[in-house]
């Protein structure tokens, strides 16, 4: 028998879940025909929704939970590594993203691997490495991290009364229902709502915390006095410089952000992506990572006697400050942050497996079967991600940074060279992707040491070097091959 | 989605796609080196290390203030860069429309 408080928390959470499913149903009613509409809304997403979906998708559970938790354990220095990502966001959005958008319009792409397969006229290696290894394998733990984050919120608010596993399963089922119903539209509409909720939560909590401590200076003075570790600013230099470089060049290389370029409708949408992503980053760094990091440091100075792991401390702070009911209302914003990323990745992974892997065998053939397969894959992927969430051992950020980012960032050299160096050919890309992915997986598995670098750095650099060397040693793509990808003027064919 | 709406979306997307060149725009040629220089400056600053040493600026520990300053500066730079970028692409769209009419 659970207490009335836990029942109320469950009621609030189920209210939020019902809202997500309603939006999924609304998106289902607005659906168009075909698999491209299900996966990228036929390129019909306008600039307002685009800003929301980029902000919400780019910043997940770690924006509210993992970031302050990281500052609590490692000081505010490491979370500052967000800044290079923000530096790169606008640049990559406009310079690289606009060209991916252009190619997407001309060739009606659905998955990131479509881009590489068309550019390099090579189906098997690009689809297996990009579609399966990077988009599918690289994303499974990312979804797990989001499921863990949203479950932490609820178990934390109920003081541990609501058990981890059943809540984890409820979160997974909710995601499946609304993503399978409405596809990309459901994801984009819920993302917009989730971006608003996440912003209200992180800004609102920071303002209340500052008011409680009597001002910003008092908050920081108290945090530094009680928990001096918050002022740890040293980041391992080799790690920071190599991660910073990858983050600077890699923002749109996250496959779930990449597909938003295919879904975008307008020029203003491209601007929304650049500014929306950056503004979300600024809010997260100022209000969440640093201000909430200082707040939990001042409130729970001793990690040994803190009520839970560092990632959960913002929830415990809200619980003490607002009580469980208002805390639950507020922390639907944290769930929203987790859901908004998880749903996007879930859809992207499903599309990659369906189009890139099954597509290699020309299956499924009919549109009806394609839709059924897409929905089945959403269930299958969440099932696999659940296994990753059963026994969370790593912090949320560590989980994502060490397992997912190294693979995602490998798309960066292939994309930059493919777009801006016409000599890049299929032999170079094939060799680069195989070498880079193998090295990255060996580094993740711990077989190859990182030498203090960001753990994707060695694989990504090797990939770039191999692409250049092999492309120089083998025949360049013919003018005709290039002109089939780099179309100068397209026409509306619909 | 009705077909009329879909054709409009596709037209809008195609107009934008046609206006974006495969090579670099003028704005990009100007902003890329500036952006790279600022980024390198930030990386050097980070490599030197932010030291607290009891120093405060405007009510914040100095390193926290400095990181906020970088973030806000970045927002200003982004707004300037995107404004020029959008303006140039719109100009190319207008030119293309004029040529089409001719």
Describe this structure in words.
The complex is a heterodimer of chains A (494) and B (102). Chain A is globular, with a radius of gyration of 22 Å. In chain A, helix 1 packs parallel to helix 13 and helix 7 runs antiparallel to helix 13. The mean pLDDT of chain A is 90. Chain A has one domain: Sodium/glucose cotransporter, CATH 1.20.1730. The relative contact order of chain A is 0.18. Helix content of chain A is 76%, strand content 0%. By secondary structure, chain A is mostly helical. Chain B is mostly helical and 102 residues long. Helix content of chain B is 78%, strand content 4%. Chain B contains three helices and two strands. A two-stranded antiparallel sheet of chain B has the order 1-2. In chain B, a hairpin with a 2-residue loop joins strand 1 and strand 2. In chain B, helix 1 packs across helix 3. The longest helix of chain B is centred in the last third of the chain and has 40 residues. Chain B is elongated and about 65 Å long. The model of chain B has no long low-confidence stretch (mean pLDDT 89). At the A-B interface, helix 5, helix 9, helix 10 and helix 12 of A face helix 1, helix 2, strand 2 and helix 3 of B.
Helix content of chain A: over 70%
- Largest sheet, strands/sense/barrel of chain B: 2 strands, antiparallel
Shape of chain A: globular
| Mean residue pLDDT of chain A | 90
Structural class of chain B: mainly alpha
Distance between the termini of chain B: 34 Å
Biggest pleated-sheet summary of chain A:
none
Q: What is the global morphology of chain B? A: elongated
CATH architecture of chain A: Up-down Bundle
Write down the overall mean pLDDT of chain B.
89
Element string of chain B (H = helix, E = strand): HHEEH
Largest interface: A-B, 65 and 54 residues
Count of DSSP helices of chain B? 3
Based on CA atoms alone, the radius of gyration of chain B comes out at 21 Å
- The neighbouring-strand order within the major sheet of chain B is 1-2
End-to-end separation of chain A in angstroms reads 58 Å
